[in-house]
Amino acid sequence: MEFNKEFDASGLSCPLPIVKTKKALADMTSGQILKVIATDPGSVCDMAAFAEQTGNDLLEQGSENSKFVFFLKKA
Description:
Blueprint: E1 5-9, H1 16-26, E2 33-38, H2 43-54, E3 57-64, E4 67-73
Parallel strand pairs: 1-2
Antiparallel strand pairs: 2-4, 3-4
């Protein structure tokens, strides 16, 4: 998937991946896509809840090289 910005949250534990994802999205314009990479297993549930609460679209989530990968579209 094409994306406009990438944020690597590898090694960060809850709640830092979400806090820093929110900060990364703040610098983006509506419709842009952010790729987030995380190693915290809790980020799977957290990212879905974050997207729902903030109105950003979680376009895709999966895993890649033992890491969790998320694609968020800024509302």
